[in-house]
Amino acid sequence: MKTIPGSARQRWRLKLGAALLAVGFAATPVLAQEDVPDVGEQVPITALINASPWFSGFEAAVALYEEQTGNVVELDVTPYSGMLEKARNAVRGAESTHQLLNIDGGWTVEFYEAGTLTPLNEIDPEFKLPQEVFACGETHWWNAAKRWRTPDGGALYGVPPNCNTHMQVYRTDIFEQAKLTPPVTVDDVAVSCKAVQAASGLYGYVTRGERGSIRFEWSPYLLAHGADIAADMENGDYTVTINSPQALTALTKFLDILKGCGPDNVAALTQNDVIQLMAAGKAAEIQVVVAAMSSLTDPAKSVVAGKLGAVPNPIVDGRKLPSPIGNWSLAIPQNISKEQKEAALAFLKWFVSKPAQEAYVEAGGVPVRADVLEPLADQPDYFWVKAYLSNLDGAVSPFGYAEAAEVNEVLGLRLNQALIGELSPTAALNTAAAEIEAIFRKTGRKTGRLPDLAE
Amino acid sequence: MLELRGRSLLLGRALLALSVVFTLAPFLYILATSFKTEIAIATGDVLFDPTLGNYQQVLFGRRSNFVRNLFNSVTVAAVSTAITLTIGLLAAYTLERQQHSRLVSRVFLGWTLVFHVMPTLTLIGPWYLIFRWLDLYNTLTALVLVHVVLNLPLTVWLLMGFIRDIPVELEDAARVDGCTPFQVFRKVVLPLVTPGLIAAGVLAFVFSWNEFSVALTLASRAAATVPIGIAQFAQQFEIQNGPMAAASMIAILPALVLMIFGQRFVVQGLTGGALK
Amino acid sequence: MSVSSAILDDAERPVRAFRRKQLFRRVALLPAVIMLVLLTVVPMLNLFAMALAEISVSRGQTEWVFRPLANLSLLLDDTQFLTATLNTLLFTVLSVSVELVLGIGLALLAASVRRGKGWIRTVTILPILVSPVAIGAMWRLIYSYDFGPLNQILEAFGLAKVGWLSETSIALLSVVVVDVWHWTPLVFLILFAGVEGLPREVIEAARIDGANRRQLLRHIVLPLLAPAIAVAFIFRSIAAFKVFDQIVLLTGGGPGTATEVLSLRLYKVFFEQNIMGYGALLSVVTIAMILAFLLTARFSLRWLEARNA
After folding, report:
1. Is C157 part of the contact surface with chain A (CB cutoff 8 Å)?
2. Bridge partners for A148 per DSSP
3. Which residues form the signal peptide (chain A) (predicted)?
């Protein structure tokens, strides 16, 4: 009987209690109480939400909401694999079964373009997101004229329940033993991962190489080298530039790190495998989502708890690799009554308030407000907060256009083939460029592509 | 009936034992995983201190809906299997033995086959709309109806094969003795088709028990079945292997018990009045 | 009077019996037909209509534009479609043939055992009781490169670790093994029931006529099992053609396109990319291919029989 359920939760709560006390929140509960927005009496709503590492935090926040306001929020907890199907079904037909939909950032464009979600200001013209809420890749904004997710001329469509960006997490003990410092530049990563691998026998640097996510892991390298999928998508120029010389450099460096320092099966690694390699003590450094921190720092799940450090993304030519962000967005469908829309918005207003976010983080969520997260950064157990905040600054959410799922599929496959050696990096990019151009042409975008890279 | 002797007996036994081992080994691995801590699973420990934590989390965790899932699955699988067997057997018997015009049986069988071949993905959208319209969304009734239809093709095809092997003379004899068509069916066909009925029943039950996509789309918390509960442990970034293994093991018990019970019921209920 | 009534009675009996038979056979088929009409007609028509259209959603309303040629040209341009088809065929042929051979063999072996049949059956069907999601997750652990029991065994013998799911040449076979483990029980169950249901009189008669075991198997048992084998073959082939869970949970179609199959392609197009028109066309093509596969199998079997006879 090593673990009992809830032990992790209690541990987090204890840690947080101490943390809050140290920072001085706990001394002023009355003040905190005053920050709670008065949302009034509302009709009951049902929220579509996924099982996830941060769900217990969300559940605790909802419980607090119900207790404070007397309003009812029913949670339909759904496996991740069923979220898109359920959200799509909800917005079809006469009346939605759910009044709040948690939508993955990568799926949002489909819902925006179909006009199936309610702009929050249509419900309450006065509503504004508090300043302290993170930009979070801006996936919850939509500018219909530009067909782009941006607050610039865009309408607010939801609230992020988490801003799930990447971190570089490393073993402090291993790096110390090898007398190495965590890498600062991309070239450092390539050198130090080999050095730490030679010194410790652990995998030097592990990240996802599997078809579905390799494109996600590579995109920071691509962007930091000044390249992108297309010329200027935000302003309608979909000329494909993925086969630029800069992109090739980015790919070569990326593959060098993956092949040089990852396991032999890197081309099949998912996020779950990456977390497992670190938790089981087989990896010296990994790239991982912040959502994994609750597991990696939990002694019941990880043999390396207490031995971890985190650093911001590495730099290339003076530019930090922009962190890809895979957040969710809590949004309100069109096909529900006015009262239900108001009730859903009432919960969102409450959820982004400081006390709600404090309850959220206390139960294991990663808060979306700077003034709740920043004070924790000095606590040893929150060693990752500084790196996280640094990566969050300038984090990018990919998939901000209608064809993103198709492009992701094509690009993921070609990159994966380059990783397993079925294609040369040049051929992978040339092939992907031609295929992506065809996708954009089919949907009537203004497109074209750079001349093929020479082998 | 097909007894082996001598060397072939030994060889047969060895092959049988080998296949039991191949079947059991991964199964035992899942069983072991269900008693492991997350750390022991992550590091691939062969020797480990067993824990009941996964089972506690599945059954009594604060978020757990698993007991409800089990109840829903037992209901849906048992009721849908009973209905499938009844209407499937009637259909199979008339199609096989009562000389429907070739058109009727060809259309029926072709239809079931094409339907069975259809990707489930393309079915669930229309079904969602139909059951919303019927006001049966998130009810066990909806799941029962859908599982009956999904299991009908295999049941009918399978039972037709078994009925074909029953000697026609037995039925003719009963008819000469003055039995009505229903009596012939009840007293001659049913007892002889029992093994097929049990096989079809087990399969219908198992498919219903493990059906995921439709249950996911047509049900939310109230009517969610076991596969939905188990899939909760496969999160976006992290698979909770321990609780998932525990949930799978828990789910097997009622299924086994129900199937053994169901078999007894079928055997005793149907062979009782046999005219053999 | 009594004579004439007796004659009448005799004349009426077959008529009444005929009516009863008519009634029974209609009523008996009715429930199945009603269920099928209620729940399959709409999805079927919907699918075929979608395959001819381009579908978009705007303001919550679905808009259909009739453009069959557009979908067809997408199919012709789809480079992954051919790979997916070939992989699917390979997967189907491999897994179904292994499952049939093992399933039939096991059923005959199990039937030859005098005691413990119940146990053998219970043990053998355990795999089909496990939820497919869990099967995927657990076999991923078993195949795990760094922590899995398979590679632990190899290492214990001083052998090199194998990338069961990450090596292009092995990945599809690894998935086949999982499919064989999962679904041989289905074939076994059907065939075991078939063996149990064999008419004893026929076999006894053949034995008395001096047939040896091999002749018995070849000329009596297997022909009698043919309907059950056919059903097992048909339904395993269909399921293997539609294989999805194992692929998604184990390999996601990778590495490269090593395990890309039709259902995965379909899932990506129809569901992830939300291109419903082309997705529906892919479904229709898949349906046609499965039916063609089954018909081919049937005709080659007939041809073989004819040649042997």
Report:
1. no
2. A143
3. 1-32
CA–CA dist A161, A105 (Å, integer): 11
Distance (Å, whole) CA C151 – CA C161 = 5
CB A99 within 8 A of CB A332: yes
Name the token pair of C70.
């557009």
Q: Mark C7-45 as b/e (b = at least 16 C-beta within 10 Å).
A: eeeeeeeeeeeeeebeebbeebbebbbebbeebbeebbe
Identify the residue whose tokens are 């092949």: A259
**Which structural domain range is residue C245 located in?**
79-199+227-308
Instruction: List per-residue pLDDT tens for chain A, 455 residues long.
Output: 333 344 444 444 444 444 444 444 444 444 444 467 888 899 999 999 998 888 888 999 999 999 999 999 999 999 998 999 999 999 987 899 999 999 999 999 999 999 999 999 999 999 999 999 999 989 999 999 999 999 999 999 999 998 989 999 999 999 999 999 999 999 999 999 999 999 999 999 999 999 999 999 999 999 999 999 999 999 999 999 999 999 999 999 999 999 999 999 999 999 999 999 999 999 999 999 998 898 899 898 899 999 999 999 999 988 889 999 988 999 999 999 999 999 999 999 999 999 999 999 888 888 999 999 999 988 888 899 999 999 998 898 888 999 999 999 999 999 999 999 999 999 999 999 999 999 999 999 999 999 999 98
Q: For residues C205 and C208, what is the distance between their CA atoms, to the nearest angstrom?
A: 5
Q: 3-state SS string over chain B?
A: CCCCCHHHHHHHHHHHHHHHHHHHHHHHHHHHHHCCCHHHHHCCCCCCCCCCHHHHHHHHCCCCCHHHHHHHHHHHHHHHHHHHHHHHHHHHHHHHHCCCCHHHHHHHHHHHHHHHHCCHHHHHHHHHHHHHHCCCCCCHHHHHHHHHHHHHHHHHHHHHHHHHCCCHHHHHHHHHCCCCHHHHHHHHHHHHCHHHHHHHHHHHHHHHHHCCHHHHHHCCHHHCCHHHHHHCCECCCCECHHHHHHHHHHHHHHHHHHHHHHHHHHHHHHHCCCCC
Nearest to C203 among B1, B126, B160 (CB): B1
Chain B contact for C71 (CB, 8 A cutoff):
no
Whether B40 and B241 have beta carbons less than 8 Å apart is answered as no
Radius of gyration from C-alpha coordinates of chain A? 22
What's the CATH code of the domain at B135?
Answer: 1.10.3720.10
All domains of chain A, ordered by start, with CATH?
7-164+325-378 (3.40.190.10), 166-324+399-449 (3.40.190.10)
Token couple for B210: 């493990």
Closest chain B C-alpha to C96 CA, distance in angstroms? 16
Query: What is the value of pTM for the model shown?
Result: 0.91
* Chains in contact with B via at least 3 Cβ–Cβ pairs below 8 Å: A, C
> Same domain for C165 and C83?
yes
Question: How many CB atoms are located within 10 Å of the residue B164 CB?
Answer: 15
C-beta separation of A157 from A117 below 8 A: yes
C200 interfaces chain A, CB cutoff of 8 Å: no
Q: How many domains does chain B have?
A: 1
Q: What is the domain-level CATH number for residue C268? A: 1.10.3720.10
Phi, psi of A133 (to 5 degrees): -75, 135
Q: In what order do the strands lie in the sheet with A285-289?
A: A285-289, A166-171, A308-311
pLDDT in tens, B158-190: 999 888 888 888 888 988 888 888 888 888 888
Tell me the per-residue pLDDT of B239-268, one tens digit each, with 9 for 90 and over. Answer: 899 999 999 999 999 888 888 888 777 777
SS3 A169: strand
In a domain, B10, yes or no: no
Structure tokens at A318: 């003076």
Flag if C58 and A416 touch (Cβ within 8 Å). no
Nearest CA to A223 among A139, A314, A326, A106?
A: A314
